[in-house]
Amino acid sequence: MKRVAVVVLEGAKPMDVGIPAQVFTHRASMPYSVDVCGIRPGLIAGGDGLSYHVEHGLEALDEADLVFVPGYRFPDRDAAPEALTEALGRAHARGAILAAISTGAFALAATGLLDGKRATTHWHYARRLAERFPEVQVDDRVLFVDEGAVLTSAGAASGIDLCLHLLRRESGMAVANHAARRLVAAPYRSGGQAQYLPHSVPESTGERFTQTREWALRHLGDPLTIARLAEHARVSERTFSRRFLDETGYTPMQWVMRARVDRARELLEETDLGIDAISAAVGLGSATNLRRHFRQVLGTAPTAYRRTFSQSS
After folding, report:
1. For domain 2-183, is the CATH number 3.40.50.880?
2. Where is the signal peptide (predicted)?
3. What HEC string does the chain produce?
4. Residue 125 to residue 73: CA distance in whole angstroms
5. 198: pLDDT confidence band, cut at 50, 70 and 90?
6. For residues 229 and 212, is the Cβ–Cβ distance under 8 A?
7. How many CB atoms sit inside 10 A of residue 138's CB?
C-alpha cells in the first residue's frame, strides 16, 4: 500500500484537486490510500465557488510516497507558503515523488527542485512561470513532463494523463488500464502531445483517426504500415502522418511501437507466456526486438519488468 497526499491551497481548482484524489482512491484494484491535506487542518477557500474541509495538515507529507500539488488561483501573484516549500523539500529528500497539476507548478518551482529541469503548466501561465523561475526550462507545448522524482502537467484534464502515466510507471499497465476504464478516460496520451492544436481538425477525420487507432490496437500482431493505417482512415499517407502527429504527439509508427510495447507489458503482467510468444503476439517479431524496444522505452528488460509487476509475483 502506497500513500498519496493531495495538498489543497487557497484558491485550489476543484478539478485539479479531484483528479488525483479520485484516480488514486483506495479500492481492491488500487494499492494506494489518499490523504487530502492543507497547510493546516480545517476550512480552505477554494476557487470557482467551492471550499474544502481537510482533516490533515502538512504532516501528511511526512509519510507520503506520492505528493500532488493541484493548481490554484493567482499563482503568479501569491508566493507559495514557506511551510509548504519546506515540507515538499523534506518529502523529496526522503524519496517521495512530487507532482504538480497545472499552476501547482509554481509552488513546486518555489522549492528549487525544478531548477535545471523541464516543466510545464497551463499554457496561459507558462510565460509567467518562466519569468518568475528563470532556472526552470518551461515547455508550454506538452501535456506533462516526467523528470523522475518531480513531474508537472498542464491544465485540468492533463492531470488525468499525468496520473495514468504515474500508475503505468509505478504500478504497471494492468492497474493503469483498469483505472482508465473506471474513469472512462483514454488509456494513453503521450506527454509530448500538444496542449491545444494550432488549427482545428475536421471532426469527421478526427473520428476516423480514433477508429483507426482502435482498429490498430486489435491488430498489433499484424503488419502495420503507414499505408495500411492511412487506407483504413481513408486519407492520404501524408495527411494521415501530419494529423496523427497533431492528435497524439507521435508519428504513426512511433505510436504503433509504443502500443506494442504496452501490450507486451500487459501480457508480461497477466500471463505466463514466454518472451518469444509475447513478441510474436504484439507484432515485434523476435525476443531480441522486444528486449531492444523495452530497453529504449522503459530502461529495463522484459524479464525484470515481469518480476516487478507480475500479478503472480
Report:
1. yes
2. none
3. CEEEEEECCCCECHHHHHHHHHHCCCECCECEEEEEECCCCEEEECCCCCEEEECECHHHHHCCCEEEECCECCCCCCCCCHHHHHHHHHHHHCCCEEEEECCHHHHHHCCCCCCCCEECCCHHHHHHHHHHCCCCEECCCECEEECCCEEEECCCCHHHHHHHHHHHHHHCHHHHHHHHHHHCCCCCCCCCCECCCCCCCCHHHHHHHHHHHHHHHHCCCCCCCHHHHHHHHCCCHHHHHHHHHHHHCCCHHHHHHHHHHHHHHHHHHHCCCCHHHHHHHCCCCCHHHHHHHHHHHHCCCHHHHHHHHCCCC
4. 11
5. very low
6. yes
7. 23
Taking CA atoms, 218 is separated from 104, 133, 221, 224, in Å, by: 38, 45, 8, 11
Q: Cα angle vertex 166, ends 165, 172, to 5°?
A: 85
What fold characterizes domain 197-313? Arc Repressor Mutant, subunit A (1.10.10)
Is residue 187's pLDDT more than 90? no
For residue 53, pLDDT beyond 50:
yes
Residue 86 has pLDDT above 90, yes or no: yes
Global confidence as pTM: 0.75
Q: Where are the domains of the chain?
A: 2-183, 197-313
Cell triple for 55: 482533516
Determine the Cα–Cα distance for residues 130 and 288; give it in Å rounded to an integer: 43
Kindly state the cell numbers that stand for 163. 496520473
